[in-house]
Amino acid sequence: MAPLPREFAEPLQRVADVCPFASRVSWHAETGSTNADAAALAEAGAPEGCVVLADLQTAGRGRLGRSWSSPAGTGIYASVLFRPKPRVARMLTIAAGVALAEAIETVAGIVPVLKWPNDLYLGGGLQSGRKVAGILAEAGVSSGETWVVIGFGINVLPVSFPHELASRATSLESELGRPVDRGELFAACLVQLAARYLDLRAGRCQDVVGAWRRRASPTFGRPVEWVDEGVTKTGAVKDIDDDGGLLVDTEAGVVRVVSGELRWP
Predict the structure, then answer these.
(1) Which segment, 99-108, 160-169, 250-259, is predicted with the most confidence on average?
(2) Is 167 found in the same domain as 62?
(3) What is the DSSP code (8-state) at residue 109?
(4) Does residue 23 sit in the same domain as residue 112?
(5) Is pTM, for the whole model, over 0.90?
(6) What per-residue confidence (pLDDT) applies to 166?
(7) Which among 25, 167, 168, 217 would be 20 to 30 A from 141, CA to CA?
(8) Whether residues 104 and 208 fall in one domain
């Protein structure tokens, strides 16, 4: 395992006493996918809390098989291994969204909006309304035990996005017009992920759901589309339920959406 660059090592050392994840970070200057690396660790029996961090991903991915642009030295590309109980596993993506939003607000002083199920946007005021971070949860079973990998990417430094993303993606520094410390932000992400995971394990799911609702409230009432058994359905976002499912108002009543692609016209 390569040594962590000082940019990340020093902030992690400062939070090691309060964050068990901070001392379990493996660093890659370049890798295909941190989620794939973390999944391999899970299959090999690695303990909960192992973290994979990369400066560059050559095959970074998002939900539904999409790619995630991961240019070198411009973002945070990381994955954390969890071995949760089923009830906790269902809520990990929601908890991760809250944790990343809290970390970004603390370090960068800018408030992201959460968009179900796994995106963080900067919207409203002078901000662009573009995606700044995303989360990918992947799960498996090894030796009879379920594991979940939570991968996340945060665009930190300005970068030229691919043409198909240029109108939909942004970075923290592009929005703020000033530098953001990647190491401090990464350390804060791990601290908040550990804290929100503890909330779930301690039965404080309502605290997590409430925090998510507050940060997602700008999306409530917005129209959405999704495909259910081959049929396109439409409605307006209402809320999430206590298990993290999206509640949508439709002509036929309130519908619960738990998976698949959601489109925001």
Answers:
(1) 99-108
(2) yes
(3) -
(4) yes
(5) yes
(6) 64
(7) 25
(8) yes
Residues 148 and 185 in one domain: yes
The amino acid at 259: S
Q: What is the DSSP letter of 44?
A: T
- Band of residue 208 on the pLDDT scale cut at 50, 70, 90: very high
More confident residue, 183 or 61: 183
Residue 64, pLDDT > 50, answer no
Same domain assignment for residues 31 and 156: yes
Stretch 125-151: mean pLDDT, rounded? 88
Count of domains for the chain: 2
Q: Beta strand 253-257 with 246-250: parallel, antiparallel or unpaired?
A: antiparallel
Same domain, 185 and 241: no
Burial label for 65, CB within 10 Å (0-12, 13-18, 19+), is exposed
Say whether both 202 and 108 belong to one domain: yes
Buried b (16+ CB within 10 A) or exposed e, 119-136: bbbbbeeebbebbbbbbb
Structural domain span for residue 41:
6-217
Do 134 and 36 reside in the same domain of the chain? yes
CB 117 within 8 A of CB 237: no
pLDDT digits (tens, 9 = 90+) for 23-57: 999 999 999 999 999 999 999 999 999 999 999 99
For residue 45, the domain's CATH number is 3.30.930.10
pLDDT at 42: 97
Q: Measured in whole angstroms, how far is the alpha carbon of residue 145 from the centre of its chain?
A: 23
pLDDT over 90 at 240, yes or no: yes
Are the beta carbons of 206 and 105 closer than 8 angstroms?
A: no
What CATH number is attached to the domain comprising 227? 2.30.30.100
Q: Hey, what amino acid is at 38? A: A
**Residue 132's closest CA among 94, 164, 170, 173?**
170
226 by DSSP, 3-state: which? strand
Structure tokens at 107: 């370090």
Contact 121, 115 (CB under 8 A): yes
